[in-house]
């Protein structure tokens, strides 16, 4: 009798874990998180791949190779996945986020050919990267003997685009079917005075004729169009993936953002609001110890990073400017500010001091608001020990992330 009960319990536990493993394929409407490797101060690189049309809509032909884009280009084990990325969004200039830019440019040129990849760069950092480019190109093309053939030109080709908060760019050449195109929008964050940006990636899908014109014949439609009538409905816009880069909590707080003046600043605030509407939010989280509270928060802010204790204010109470809301137990007054469409919030940039991975996951489970548990994913592969790789096994998704719910189910399983 006893063994029967145990088997049922064990089976259902594995079912729970299995369910979480499979239901958490990390995608927005059009993008999947292909790989994410990050460790504070060491390296950060997140690679996204466009979903095949078969995954978006029925009956479409398969594309040969799917477009990729990347957030930051630190030197990480994701590098191979990042090589085909034709757009790279650099959040700031610290070397753990940009150290592999020129390796990427060269590898992209060697393996993919075609146009140079485009790197979006915070405007103030462009001159520094240009200087690096000159040095790297000289290095790459150096020859011991100029006379006897050999390659005299560097293979490094880069296209740096200067970005300011509030800028929007269309991601030319990337489409899903004939109706959906993509854009990037940049917003200001706060990384202890260093020029730093966060990004949102969105899609725009044309939605055809307005309802009232759908029954008309072509000749009538042509006539109406000639007379200046707008026949098409507004495109449907989705904020799909957001990336905070490195920032302290102030850099993401909506209630602290008062647009100073000018269009760009207002747009930056608007785009930062869109971060909280994204289908997938990639959010830095460097300090995980919720027991250190005040002192830890202060240290995190000084270093321009996010402390786990700030998540409550960022994601649970963002919409309120009313300080009285913080009286009494927070659970009773706070509601999650994330939109319903936010499927995943992926925490990355964990400090190596919080390792190994299971310890970091325990700290995250203890420290983040419960309302975030269901959507929480952690880019934890940088902290995995060999034993953990074995014991966590299937919980580790191919992109290097672990779902917090799957982890908790695994942790609570009968031993
Ligand atoms: Zn960093
Ligand atoms: Zn940094």
UniProtKB/TrEMBL annotation:
Highest taxon of the lineage: Eukaryota
Q: What's the protein called, per UniProt?
A: Metallo-beta-lactamase domain-containing protein
């Amino acid at each position: 009798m006893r063994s029967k009960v145990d088997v049922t319990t064990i089976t259902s536990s594995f079912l729970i874990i299995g369910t979480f493993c499979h239901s958490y394929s990390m995608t927005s409407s059009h993008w999947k998180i292909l790989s994410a490797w990050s460790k504070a101060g060491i390296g950060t690189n997140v690679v996204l791949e466009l979903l095949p049309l078969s995954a978006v809509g029925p009956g479409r032909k398969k594309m040969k190779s799917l477009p990729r884009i990347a957030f930051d280009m630190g030197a990480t084990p994701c590098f191979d996945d990042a090589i085909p990325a034709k757009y790279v969004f650099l959040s700031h200039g610290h070397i753990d986020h940009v150290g592999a830019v020129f390796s990427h440019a060269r590898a992209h040129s060697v393996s993919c050919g075609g146009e140079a990849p485009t790197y979006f760069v915070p405007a103030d950092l462009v001159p520094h990267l240009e200087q690096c480019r000159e040095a790297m190109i000289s290095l790459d093309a150096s020859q011991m003997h100029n006379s006897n053939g050999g390659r005299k030109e560097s293979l490094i080709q880069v296209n740096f685009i200067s970005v300011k908060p509030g800028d929007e760019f269309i991601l030319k050449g990337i489409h899903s079917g004939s109706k959906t195109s993509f854009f990037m929008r940049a917003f200001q964050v706060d990384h202890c005075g260093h020029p730093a940006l966060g990004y949102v990636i969105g899609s725009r899908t044309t939605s055809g004729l307005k309802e009232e014109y759908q029954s008309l014949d072509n000749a009538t439609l042509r006539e109406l169009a000639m007379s200046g009538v707008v026949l098409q409905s507004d495109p449907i816009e989705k904020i799909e993936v957001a990336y905070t880069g490195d920032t302290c909590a102030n850099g993401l707080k909506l209630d602290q953002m008062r647009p100073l003046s000018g269009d760009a600043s207002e747009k930056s605030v608007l785009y930062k609001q869109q971060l909280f509407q994204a289908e997938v939010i990639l959010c830095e989280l460097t300090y995980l110890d919720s027991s250190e509270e005040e002192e830890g928060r202060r240290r995190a802010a000084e270093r321009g990073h996010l402390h786990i204790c700030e998540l409550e204010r960022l994601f649970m109470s963002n919409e309120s400017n009313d300080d009285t809301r913080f009286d009494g137990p927070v659970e009773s007054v706070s509601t999650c500010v994330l939109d319903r469409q936010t499927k995943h919030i992926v925490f990355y940039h964990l400090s190596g001091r919080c390792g190994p991975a299971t310890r970091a996951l325990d700290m995250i489970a203890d420290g983040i608001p419960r309302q975030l548990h269901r959507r929480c994913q952690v880019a934890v592969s940088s902290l995995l020990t060999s034993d953990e790789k074995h014991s966590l096994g299937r919980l580790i998704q191919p992109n290097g992330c672990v779902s917090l719910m799957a982890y908790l189910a695994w942790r609570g399983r009968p031993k």
